[in-house]
Amino acid sequence: MNKLEKCYYAVIENKKRGKFSGAGPIQVAKKVASKKLKAGKEMEFYLDEVAGKKKRYGPYQARKDKKSGKVAVVKTRKVMKGGVLSTSDRYKLEEIFKNFNNSWRGVQYKGEPEMFVKSRLPVISFGFKPIVYFYPHGYQNIIYKFAVFKERNGNIYIMIYKMSNNIDIVSMTDFFLNPEYSSNFNQVGNSRFGLNKENILSSLQNPNIIESRTIREEAIKICDLLYKPTGNTTTQKAIIYVPNYYQPRIKKCVYPDLTFGVLDEKPDNPTINQEMIQLQVPESFYQLYLIKRQSFFNGYYEPVIYIQLPSQDREELEKRRLLRQLQIKPPYFNYCIYTDPTDRNRLKIIMYNPESKYVGLSTTDFNEKLSNDDNIKMACSILLTIPLEFGKLERVRRIANNIINPPQYVGFQGNSLRKNSLREPLLSLQSL
Q: What pLDDT is stored for residue 3 in this prediction?
């Protein structure tokens, strides 16, 4: 390797896939794409410095032409200074949390321990940024279950101290809005001091506890979503965010009841057939929809929308799923809506029911003729809550709206005898 060249790790799907060197990041990105890409395919990746400040560069999108084999590489957006937490940073943070908790072991309290304890992270790597530990647990051996801090680039993290002495580090927003962490919160954070999600979010808005304005503002957004009524029944509240800073092309839209949808913008080339609906599995019983990309010729894409019908006992099902009870059947998507590859003016819908005694899979046109099916109407209500930030989906929205609210025929008065089996869909979305 030339002394003037720098060395980088290629990070693909959050895993290191080899070392590459070059004069600069873009030259290295082209080398990675030439080595890792197959003809006619696309991929997204990052570059991590091997030495120096260990910055992360990217994301880069690469495409290899099927005929010529020529590689095109584009940097889609800037990554904020500092990138995301490195492996070494995570290790340091875990040790800091363990040492903090070890310092409280055996401490005898005359009164109750402080609910929130402020401290500072080391100058090296973390710039002496404040960290706040909260949710004390125990009697003689006090352990703080959680800690919150903001990285210099603006990313906000929650550290979760588990009973097995393991530590998870997750996005603050995802911690409060992800049903999986909510369940973890209720189990791991079973404090005798009466702290719960609502009053913790309230405390995180207090400048005497939290110095960071970024953390306080995020706590306000989450608290408003979960606990503040809109006063407007025609507006659907929701928060859109990136649940994992390592995968910025995956976004989540979460509603007040913790149901959510996911937009996955990673390059994907699904084989269009009935079985593709079985290959996509919902993250949980709370997931309403997943939007992926269907690749056409000339770099043109159409959305593929997977829908899971909500279950009334989803909270109980999700608890059982997280406890890995074998008798619980995993969640699945009931419908998949996509553009017909042979006719781009035509939408198709795959219907899937693994519990059916007859045909579990069937495909038909997605149009207004499906309006007699109550499950289809429920799916259409879900379609109409997808935020515009996740795609205009104009044809899908028009058909969904016509299925729920069929247009009146000319020459007839409005049919007062017809009653909607579902409540009026919420057509607008307030992004907090």
A: 63
